[in-house]
Amino acid sequence: MQFMLLFSRQGKLRLQKWYVPLSDKERKKISRDLVQTILARKPKMCSFLEWRDLKIVYKRYASLYFCCAVEDQDNELITLEIIHRYVELLDKYFGSVCELDIIFNFEKAYFILDEFLLGGEAQETSKKNVLKAIEQADLLQECTFPV
Amino acid sequence: MPAVSKGDGMRGLAVFISDIRNCKSKEAEIKRINKELANIRSKFKGDKALDGYSKKKYVCKLLFIFLLGHDIDFGHMEAVNLLSSNKYTEKQIGYLFISVLVNSNSELIRLINNAIKNDLSSRNPTFMCLALHCIANVGSREMAEAFAGEIPRILVAGDTMDSVKQSAALCLLRLYKASPDLVLMGEWTSRVVHLLNDQHMGVVTAAISLITCLSSKNPDEFKTCVSLAVSRLSRIVSSASTDLQDYTYYFVPAPWLSCKLLRLLQCYPPPEDGAVKGRLVECLETILNKAQEPPKSKKVQHSNAKNAILFEAISLIIHYDSEPNLLVRACNQLGQFLQHRETNLRYLALESMCTLASSEFSHEAVKTHIETVINALKTERDVSVRQRAADLLYAMCDRSNAKQIVAEMLSYLETADYSIREEMVLKVAILAEKYAVDYSWYVDTILNLIRIAGDYVSEEVWYRVIQIVINRDDVQGYAAKTVFEALQAPACHENMVKVGGYILGEFGNLIAGDPRSSPLVQFNLLHSKFHLCSVPTRALLLSAYIKFINLFPETKATIQEVLRSDSQIRNSDVELQQRAVEYLKLSSIASTDVLATVLEEMPPFPERESSILAKLKKKKGPGAVSVELEDGKERGELNGGGDRGGDAAIAASNASTPSPSADLLGLRSTAPVSGTTPSAGSLLVDVFSEAGPSATSAGVNDDGFLSSAPPTVASEDPAPPLPESDELLNKFVCKNNGVLFENQLLQIGIKSEYRQNLGRMYLFYGNKTSVQFVSFNTTVSCPGELQSQLNVQTKTVEPLVEGGAQVQQVINIECLTDFIDAPLLNIKFRYGGALQNISLKLPVTINKFFQPTEMAAADFFQRWKQLSQPQQEAQKIFKASHGMDTEVLKAKLLGLGTALLENVDPNPENYVCAGVIQTKAQQVGCLLRLEPNAQAQPGEQMYRLTLRSSKDTVSQRVCDLLAEQF
């Protein structure tokens, strides 16, 4: 996977994760272009589209769009389920996740993503294991370690 | 699990985020952010040392501001400080900031790397994972330099925790992708492969991404993974949906891992071991069988996961392309999906079937779905699905269904989305050409294309129709008639005017017999469009007009009038004005013969790969054009072939394409690089300025050999080449024009121009006597192996050359591969009853196909070093036969066709040059160095000439040729 974007129906970017080196300018341009392209699509359309030399896989959950860019040989359907699993993880962690949870706890959204995907590939697909790792980290939050 | 109470709420951050959300305008938001930035800056700069919590809070605020899309240029140091905090939460925020806002400040990088190093060696798995995540997120070269050695050790160490192994595997993958040279293979590689056997499914899932990437780059080193992957896959496929506990996703066992295993196997050919292969085929059959079973859940996640595996299995089946049974089963399965209610599945089925269409085993099976696909093209509501349908139609097209498919695509074009029109046009054009049985259908199709989607018809498309019409005389009359009719439409597309102008200019005579399309009617029709057209089209039309003057002398007065009008002859566009002036002059002073020669019908274009195909390939990448089923050879060329071959093909096809400004006369050289033929564009002018061929200027008229009277051999066999023909050949190594030969009866002048691997030579035979030559006949032959190296085509000349007259002959030359010998030109005629029989070497030498290459000193010496094998070099040391005048030397080296590189050789006395010899088969890069000892006494002056090229015969030949020049 080359990058993942979360954005609202109003086109506001809520999370962006880049797995390939790109300049800040390029990232902004890509986000702008893609958000526009996807928001222009109608509800019943298919979840995949060709965009530049990448395949875009996206799905809307309530007010949020989840959008992944994968390479030509990557599997679209399994990417769609990557998105779904991430949504499940957020949902389980926040308890019926909504857009506001992600806005106010953006750092958590990033931490959960890092446990699930690393370098653009699935690191751990078991829901239990990912949440266990996050909960363990939460337990450590205020612990002080001897240096 | 209520979230906000979880861990540490940062109240200040929440308040700030609320403030931003409450901002009513962009300006208000920016104001609020600037206020916050000022606040943070003052806190960071303040005297009071900040505690960890405040630092964390401010760093987090900066991060939030950055993610809103604002620039952040400070705070990095504070974030780095957090890395070494002994509070986990502070460390975590520090790492997040570093991962998102990568900074290239080297001092910072040193500090970051130190912190990472500490965490990696902490043996605390949570800290180790944080550090590994940071490396994977940043993935910079500096990090690869620091950690590419350490991470493999962590990955394969026996006591590493599973979660750390997972992070280490993907961290290494990221570093390998970014800096493959820094990740060295070693003892760890074999142990990595065995992670496929790991008990922990998460470890296998993470490791397989790394293994797949490494295998695709180093297949041999990792080939043991094939059997491991097959047995792992087999265990998953045959497991019950509950066996894998949390790795089962909506009743599908380990879908991510299954897909990755199938993907890994696509890095390799089918397993050679029969047992492994049998097991794999069994897996694939099981996956296909499962697709037919009733779903275990109605949830879309279940069917998506299941079908993800199915599609990946089909990709593997297509990749193997060796199991007809599986291929046909795959095709049937996809056929079912074509009518599925899920848009996603229809899309993927169309896409996947596209690749199945190119397999000989499943092509026919794919074709049975044609009606469904056509229906999809017409009725799908989503443009991306329609695009897939169009792709599939293109892929399944063959001779049996071409007319149907082309017709459907054409009718779709009328309503097609703008985004895909250009590609559709290219595809229709290619199919129409490829499967044309009668070319009138082809011409109709292309003209329809222009009518329906003129704006999307790229230059390549209309160039191509012209190439084909010019090359096929059976369709010329039809083409002329059809364009004439198409131009009747009151509003027709400019591209139609271009094609019409070109074709009527060449072949208007074929329909001129019909009074409804008499010459004047044709001219008036074309000219009625003139004022609506752009400059390049007008230029083309002007050329068509001058061609008309030649084809139909009765139009001369009318056309001259048009050319003479102020709007032409004083046109503000310099190209148009020049054409008007020159054509007017040409039509008024040149004799009918000269006019007929200059405005002769275009010679056939050399047969080439279609320029449209090249364009489509460029657009879509080489894999995308896989229609060539019927012709195995062509298919190989398209799908295989390195980039270099592809580029060469594109270059070659460009060479055979009429220029964008569409020179009907074909005189203007299109390639901007043709520095070797400075006079290429001025041939037209030369015809007027010199009465004879560029005669007197050349100094070949050495009386020494002229006095050897014309050979009076009575034999009709071609005479052996004149003894001096090698010397004559040498005179043309560094120049393209001049007098090749002269005796008391005959003078032969030459003009030639070369581009890429093609050349055109004009020979002018001048009768110096007042008596006519009869049975005048010339032949060009390629002796011996030259036949397979050069392709030479000549047009016959008139058998009668009047006294004092001159005839011209055009020779087209194509260089197939490098060569040494020169083609032989034999001239026979009778002068006063006596047979004259002369053979000469035609000055076609390998250097004519040079394309100059400019390069900097560093590049030159690097390449020079790369060509250091003894056979790649040829060297000669020889006495100077002429003076060592710098300008003369430079002119000769430029004439050779190479680029003369200044400031490359450390010794300014020396000359270095570079060029690429273009042949059809290959391109041969050549480097040259000429070292004169200019200080020596005249008579003692010597040169050392060194040639290096990737081909020994080329080095030697160029060296031999050039050594004769100084």
UniProtKB/TrEMBL annotation, chain A:
GO terms for molecular function: clathrin adaptor activity. The gene is AP1S2. It is a peripheral membrane protein. Residues 1-140 form the AP complex mu/sigma subunit domain. CDD domains: AP1_sigma. InterPro entries: AP1_sigma, AP_complex_ssu, AP_mu_sigma_su, Clathrin_sm-chain_CS, Longin-like_dom_sf. Its main location: membrane. PROSITE patterns: CLAT_ADAPTOR_S. Belongs to the adaptor complexes small subunit family. One of its GO terms (cellular component) is AP-1 adaptor complex. Adaptor protein complex 1 (AP-1) is a heterotetramer composed of two large adaptins (gamma-type subunit AP1G1 and beta-type subunit AP1B1), a medium adaptin (mu-type subunit AP1M1 or AP1M2) and a small adaptin (sigma-type subunit AP1S1 or AP1S2 or AP1S3). Binds to MUC1. SUPFAM superfamilies: SNARE-like. It is found in: Cytoplasmic vesicle membrane; Golgi apparatus; Membrane, Clathrin-coated pit. The keyword ATP-binding does not apply. Subunit of clathrin-associated adaptor protein complex 1 that plays a role in protein sorting in the late-Golgi/trans-Golgi network (TGN) and/or endosomes. The AP complexes mediate both the recruitment of clathrin to membranes and the recognition of sorting signals within the cytosolic tails of transmembrane cargo molecules. Pfam families: Clat_adaptor_s (PF01217). This is AP complex subunit sigma. It comes from Oncorhynchus tshawytscha. One of its GO terms (biological process) is intracellular protein transport. It comes from the Eukaryota. Keywords: Coated pit, Cytoplasmic vesicle, Golgi apparatus, Membrane, Protein transport, Transport.
